[in-house]
């Protein structure tokens, strides 16, 4: 079934690009997924292949190897990557959708040459370090600090749940350099190279979701970095982080749409084929209810996703709507994966049928990039503001 949302929001060229990406994912990525999930790691050769295919820097500047196209191209790659493997989607999103995007906007030309170019070509992989063991929701209260020492800064602290940390070539690290907790001013963002003395990465976490995407702690013990490694301006690093949050949440809508689409891709043909009590289970109303709710959830999420990507392209502020999409679509993807497992019965619990993986991966999106509770806080605040309440 073709998506009306895709036909309504995408240009002819973008629709063709979507087909190319779908073909690439099916032919070149899908066969790698079982091994990536087992190894707990994405092979760098896959990043390089995606770089070669111009699938990483679609929206990034041509000057550094990107294609300079609309953000929608990244949205398409994002959704289609999540459809084939949510862990791969998370790893690429961190390197490209967050780190490379911040470098393109806030980096100096030397930083772009050194870090952005290899990220776009798939030669390097990056992490973004915000969350700390003391908590992730209160993102403006990090305990990791940086103190100025001549033309260097000295970083101390630790970060946790850091996507890509075991294979990252460099890290964007958010620190408190002055001011009080919960204040946006007084934060500084540093680019720290792998191998910098005092920087260490813990072992990859054994986790419920995203088996292919390695996640670990990162420790900073008197890590000295030159001031040229500051991204943007000193004391203004949290604004970079805040600038990225809305788009991150819009893209979470793409992850959830992709995961739910993968559930339907497996569950619908299975229901048509599987005969129980002499009839395909798709003939039973309780199964029809599940398929109808999954299909509706996908199209509603995709419509809002593309709509918000276009709004971001136009430079519009979408904080409340991005939170609505993340809240709705993550709940929808968890429902879709739970119901897909149910449709497949015992087979649904077997790794071979893939929906067990989707069930684990969907849960992440109710937590990562801001929890569902935090999304509700944002929506509530913005809604009350519209009614004149403080
Ligand atoms: C696989 C994975 C990958 C990740 N990758 C990265 C990464 O690359 N970089 C990075 O910086 N972080 C990363 N994270 C961290 C992620 O963003 C945080 O886990 C998330 O923001 C939640 O923070 P927390 O886990 O500390 O939960 P907490 O902040 O401790 O929250 C715990 C619970 O309390 C609830 N809660 C908190 N405040 C309120 C409130 N005011 N009202 C009601 N309920 C509240 C939360 O909703 C949640 O249910 C990753 C996490 C995972 C699991």
Can you describe this structure in just a few lines?
With 390 residues, the chain is α+β, with helices and mostly antiparallel strands. The protein has helices at 4-9, 12-29, 33-39, 44-52, 71-84, 86-106, 109-121, 237-273, 285-313, 319-344, 355-364, 372-386; strands spanning 126-129, 145-149, 152-163, 170-176, 187-193, 199-201, 215-226, 230-231, 275-276, 279-280. It has 3 domains: 4-124, Orthogonal Bundle (Butyryl-Coa Dehydrogenase, subunit A, domain 1); 128-235, Butyryl-CoA Dehydrogenase, subunit A, domain 2, CATH 2.40.110; 239-386, Up-down Bundle (Butyryl-CoA Dehydrogenase, subunit A, domain 3).
Give a verbal description of the structure:
The structure is a single chain. The protein is α+β, with helices and mostly antiparallel strands and 390 residues long. The chain has three domains: 4-124, Orthogonal Bundle (Butyryl-Coa Dehydrogenase, subunit A, domain 1), CATH 1.10.540.10; 128-235, Butyryl-CoA Dehydrogenase, subunit A, domain 2, CATH 2.40.110; 239-386, Butyryl-CoA Dehydrogenase, subunit A, domain 3. Helix content is 53%, strand content 14%. The chain has helices at 4-9, 12-29, 33-39, 44-52, 71-84, 86-106, 109-121, 237-273, 285-313, 319-344, 355-364, 372-386; strands at 126-129, 145-149, 152-163, 170-176, 187-193, 199-201, 215-226, 230-231, 275-276, 279-280. It has a four-stranded mixed β-sheet, with helices on one face. Strands 2-3-7-6 form a four-stranded antiparallel β-sheet, with helices on one face. The chain is globular. The structure holds flavin-adenine dinucleotide. Residues 94, 127-131, 135-137, 161-163, 207, 209-210, 215, 364, 367-371, 373-374, 377 line the site of flavin-adenine dinucleotide (FAD).
């Amino acid at each position: 079934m073709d998506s009306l949302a895709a036909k309504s929001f995408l240009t002819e060229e973008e629709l063709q690009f979507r087909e190319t990406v779908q073909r690439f994912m099916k032919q070149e990525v899908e066969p790698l997924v079982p091994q990536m999930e087992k190894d707990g790691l994405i092979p760098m050769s896959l990043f390089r292949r995606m770089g070669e295919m111009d699938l990483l820097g679609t929206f990034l500047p041509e000057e550094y190897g990107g294609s300079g196209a609309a953000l929608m191209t990244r949205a398409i790659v994002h959704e289609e990557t999540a459809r084939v493997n949510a862990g791969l989607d998370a790893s690429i999103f961190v390197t490209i959708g967050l780190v490379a995007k911040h470098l393109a906007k806030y980096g100096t030309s030397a930083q772009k040459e050194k870090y952005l170019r290899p990220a776009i070509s798939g030669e390097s992989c990056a992490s973004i370090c915000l969350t700390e063991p003391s908590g992730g929701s209160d993102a403006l209260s990090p305990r990791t600090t940086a103190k100025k020492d001549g033309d260097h800064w000295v970083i101390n602290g630790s970060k946790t749940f850091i996507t890509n940390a075991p294979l990252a070539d460099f890290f964007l690290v958010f620190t408190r350099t002055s001011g009080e907790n919960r204040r946006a001013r007084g934060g500084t963002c540093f680019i720290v190279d792998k191998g910098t003395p005092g920087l260490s990465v813990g072992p990859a976490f054994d986790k419920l979701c995203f088996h292919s995407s390695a996640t670990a702690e990162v420790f900073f013990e008197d890590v000295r970095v030159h001031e040229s490694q500051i991204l943007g301006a000193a004391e203004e690093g949290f604004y970079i982080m805040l600038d990225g949050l809305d788009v991150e949440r819009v893209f979470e809508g793409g992850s959830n749409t992709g995961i739910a689409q993968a559930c339907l891709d497996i569950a619908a043909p299975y229901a048509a084929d599987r005969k129980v009590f002499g009839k395909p289970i798709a003939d039973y109303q309780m199964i029809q209810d599940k398929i109808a709710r999954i299909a509706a959830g996908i199209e509603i999420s995709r419509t809002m996703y593309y709509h918000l990507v276009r709004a971001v392209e136009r430079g519009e502020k979408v904080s409340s709507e991005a939170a609505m999409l993340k809240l709705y679509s993550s709940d929808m993807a968890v429902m879709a994966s739970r119901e897909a497992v149910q449709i497949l019965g015992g087979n649904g619990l077997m790794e071979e049928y893939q929906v067990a993986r989707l069930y684990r991966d969907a849960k992440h999106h109710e937590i990562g990039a801001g929890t569902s509770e935090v999304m509700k806080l944002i929506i509530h605040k913005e809604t009350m503001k519209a009614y004149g309440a403080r």
